[in-house]
UniProtKB/TrEMBL annotation:
Pfam families: SURF1 (PF02104). GO terms for cellular component: plasma membrane. The keyword Membrane applies. The chain crosses the membrane at residues 197-215. It comes from the Bacteria. This is SURF1-like protein. The keyword Transmembrane helix applies. It is found in: Cell membrane; Membrane. Coiled coil: none annotated. The lineage of its organism: Bacteria, Pseudomonadati, Pseudomonadota, Alphaproteobacteria, Rhodobacterales. InterPro entries: Surf1/Shy1, Surf1/Surf4. It is a multi-pass membrane protein.
């Protein structure tokens, strides 16, 4: 009986651990869905004036409206979209009516249009504050001679264009030749459902293997 008892205890313990991990991932899934719903509501909210001192944590995704003048001297950030392929995000300096200089992510242009002149001057832009986390150890340094950047590094872009380290990602169209790429939650990972299915699947396999070994041990004993 000892081998059978050992297998039973071992099997039940392992099954309990795997099921508890699956349950934990389900709880994380509900938590993450709540967070994403809050972010989506924040993104789609009615725009407010730009805060005096935006905070990267408190004001991330805040919907804002800014009125002023789009300035020359854009930076092009390499990007690829599912529908249009490779191209560039156009990051431009924007001078507000109160004299503050900020960054505007105007949107996407195809690679072939990178040198096409874009609308400048007075305009109102509606968008969302964002401080993208796109830098890692493999991100190349910008090619300033060709004006090609590989990530939206807000402090570096601000230093390059002489603005505050504040980036508004436009959701309103401010030039017919530039397609806005508004902020959304598509880039925020939510893999908890897959993890839960994996743990529950392992629990099912564990239970089946435990049952098989118990059956085989009992059959051997009877024989």
């Amino acid at each position: 009986m000892r081998p059978i008892l050992f297998l039973l205890v071992f099997g039940v313990t392992g099954l309990a651990v795997l099921v508890s991990l699956g349950n934990w991932q389900v709880r994380r899934l509900h938590w993450k869905e709540g967070i994403l719903a809050e972010i989506e509501a924040r993104i789609a909210a009615d725009p407010v004036p730009l805060p005096t001192d935006p905070d990267p944590e408190r004001d991330k995704f805040l919907a804002v409206t800014v009125t002023g003048r789009m300035e020359p001297g854009e930076v092009r950030v390499l990007v690829s979209t599912r529908d249009s392929g490779a191209g560039y995000r156009i990051i431009a300096p924007f001078v507000m009516q109160d004299g503050r200089r900020i960054l505007i992510d105007r949107g996407y242009v195809p690679a072939m249009d990178k040198n096409t002149p874009r609308a400048l001057g007075p305009m109102t832009v509606i968008g969302n504050l964002h401080w993208p986390d796109e830098i890692d150890g493999f991100t190349p340094e910008p090619d300033r001679e060709a004006n090609i950047w590989f990530a939206r590094d807000v402090p570096a872009l601000a230093a390059e264009l002489g603005t505050e380290p504040v980036l508004v990602i436009a959701r309103s169209k401010n030039d017919p030749r530039v397609t806005p790429l508004p902020v959304d939650t598509a880039g925020i990972p939510n893999d908890h459902l897959q993890y839960a299915v994996t743990w529950y699947g392992l629990a099912l396999v564990w239970a089946a293997m435990t049952g098989y070994f118990l059956w085989r041990s009992r059959a051997r004993k009877q024989s």
